[in-house]
C-alpha cells in the first residue's frame, strides 16, 4: 500500500507538464533527497514507472486500477499483477463475507468466459470481477448479465462517445467486432443467492488473437483510454442498479445489435432456430420458433450461431 506522503509525490508528478527536479521536489515537500528517493522507490514497487534524467523526474503514463486510485474504496478493491482467475478470487472473498468489492488483475493464467472458454488477454486490458449482493432470484441471472453490458455501454458512451451494442448472451460489440464479455455466477440458494460475481474482460489497449473479429477502445480512436475511469464508471452504475434491481427489457432491446436469425444449442442437447424477439424481465431471450416465442435463459446456452435467412 502506498502511504499518504508518497501519494502526494505521485499527484505532483502526475500533474506536472514537464520533468521536475529532485531538489525542487525535496524543497517543496520539506524532505531530504534520500527521503524523496525512498518515495520514488515506493511508487516503483507499487507498479508506477518513474523516470529520471538530467531534466528531473517524470511519471510515465499509467492507468493501472490500483486501490488507492479510488479514494474511499481502497478496502473494497483488490489488485493483482498476475492471478489465476479474478472470478475465483472474488468467489473466495464473497464466501468469506465481503459485502461488495472488485478484484482486478493485469494478467490471468486461468481466466475464463462462458461455458469454461478461456479468456485471452495480452495485458493492458480491464480484467475485473465484481462481488454484488442484489435481492435477485437466480432466475434473473440473465438480467444481471444484460445490465452489466448495458452499464458498460453507457460508460464507454459517456467517456469516449463510443456506440457499442449488446450481443446476447454475454458480449459487447462494435459493429461485428467483439470488445468485451461478461460472466455471471451465483452462490447460494436458487430463490435468493447469497451473492453474485460479475466478471468482465474488456479490450482497452490491446486486441487478443481470436478466431473472430475483435476491437479495443484504443483501436476505435482512443489510445489514451483510462482503465481507472472505465472501471469507476461501470462499477458505480452496476452496483447502484444491484442495490435496487429493476429489470428493463426495453433498455436492453434498445442497446442490442439488430436481430438476425439465430440458432441456439443448449446444455441439455436441444437446438432451436428462430428470430430473436427481444428479452423478458428475467433477461431470457425470446426466440420466435415457428411463431411460438420460446424464452431461453442465460444459463441454458452452450453456443449460438447465425443462420441463413
Helical/strand content category: alpha+beta
Measured between the Cα atoms of the first and last residue, the distance is 57 Å
Low-pLDDT stretches are none
Instruction: Tell me, briefly, the overall form.
Output: elongated
In which order are the strands of the major sheet placed?
Answer: 3-4-5-9-8-7-6
| Top-tier CATH class of the largest domain | Alpha Beta
Can you identify the CATH superfamily of the largest domain?
A: Bira Bifunctional Protein, Domain 2
Strand content: 25-35%
Q: Give the % helix.
A: 25-40%
Number of DSSP helices?
7
Indicate the mean pLDDT.
90
> How many strand segments?
14
Run of helices and strands: HHHEEEHEEHEEEEHHEEEEE
**Biggest beta-sheet profile:** 7 strands, mixed
Work out the radius of gyration: 22 Å
Q: How many domains, as an integer?
A: 3
How would you summarize this macromolecular structure in one to three sentences?
It is built from seven helices and 14 strands. It has helices at residues 4-14, 22-29, 33-45, 86-95, 141-160, 227-243, 249-255; strands at residues 50-53, 56-59, 77-83, 101-108, 126-132, 165-167, 171-174, 177-188, 193-202, 262-266, 271-279, 285-289, 292-296, 301-306. β10 and β11 form a beta hairpin.
Q: Can you walk through the features of this model?
A:
With 309 residues, this protein is an alpha+beta fold. It has three domains: 4-59, Winged helix-like DNA-binding domain superfamily/Winged helix DNA-binding domain (Arc Repressor Mutant, subunit A, Orthogonal Bundle); 67-255, Bira Bifunctional Protein, Domain 2 (BirA Bifunctional Protein, domain 2, 2-Layer Sandwich); 262-306, SH3 type barrels (Roll). Helix content is 28%, strand content 29%. It has helices at residues 4-14, 22-29, 33-45, 86-95, 141-160, 227-243, 249-255, and strands at residues 50-53, 56-59, 77-83, 101-108, 126-132, 165-167, 171-174, 177-188, 193-202, 262-266, 271-279, 285-289, 292-296, 301-306. A hairpin with a 2-residue loop joins strand 1 and strand 2. The termini are far apart.
Amino acid at each position: 500500500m502506498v502511504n499518504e506522503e508518497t501519494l502526494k509525490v505521485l499527484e505532483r508528478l502526475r500533474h506536472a507538464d514537464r520533468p521536475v527536479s529532485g531538489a525542487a521536489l525535496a524543497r517543496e515537500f520539506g524532505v531530504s533527497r534520500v527521503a524523496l528517493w525512498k518515495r520514488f522507490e515506493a511508487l516503483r514497487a507499487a507498479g508506477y514507472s518513474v523516470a529520471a534524467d538530467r531534466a528531473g523526474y517524470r511519471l510515465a503514463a499509467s492507468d493501472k486500477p490500483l486501490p488507492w486510485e479510488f479514494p474511499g474504496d481502497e478496502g473494497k478493491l483488490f489488485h493483482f499483477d498476475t492471478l489465476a482467475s479474478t472470478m475465483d478470487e472474488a468467489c473466495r472473498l464473497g464466501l468469506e463475507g465481503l459485502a461488495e468489492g472488485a478484484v482486478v488483475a493485469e494478467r490471468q493464467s486461468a481466466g475464463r468466459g462462458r461455458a469454461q472458454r478461456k479468456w485471452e488477454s495480452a495485458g493492458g486490458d480491464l480484467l475485473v470481477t465484481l462481488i454484488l449482493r442484489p435481492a435477485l432470484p437466480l432466475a434473473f441471472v440473465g438480467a444481471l448479465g444484460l445490465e452489466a453490458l448495458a452499464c458498460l455501454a453507457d460508460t464507454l458512451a459517456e467517456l469516449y462517445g463510443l456506440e457499442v451494442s449488446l450481443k446476447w448472451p454475454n458480449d459487447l460489440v462494435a459493429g461485428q467486432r467483439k470488445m468485451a464479455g461478461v460472466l455471471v455466477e451465483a452462490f447460494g440458494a436458487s430463490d435468493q443467492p447469497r451473492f453474485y460475481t460479475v466478471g468482465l474482460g474488456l479490450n482497452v489497449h490491446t486486441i487478443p488473437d481470436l478466431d473472430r473479429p475483435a476491437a479495443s477502445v484504443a483501436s476505435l480512436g482512443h489510445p489514451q483510454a483510462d482503465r481507472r475511469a472505465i472501471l469507476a464508471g461501470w462499477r458505480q452504475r452496476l452496483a447502484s442498479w444491484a442495490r435496487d434491481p429493476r429489470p428493463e427489457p426495453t433498455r436492453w432491446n434498445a442497446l442490442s445489435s439488430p436481430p438476425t436469425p439465430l440458432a441456439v444449442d443448449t446444455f441439455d442437447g436441444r437446438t432451436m432456430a428462430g428470430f430473436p424477439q427481444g428479452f423478458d424481465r428475467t433477461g431470457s431471450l425470446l426466440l420466435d420458433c415457428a411463431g411460438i416465442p420460446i424464452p431461453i435463459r442465460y444459463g441454458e446456452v452452450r453456443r449460438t450461431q447465425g443462420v441463413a435467412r
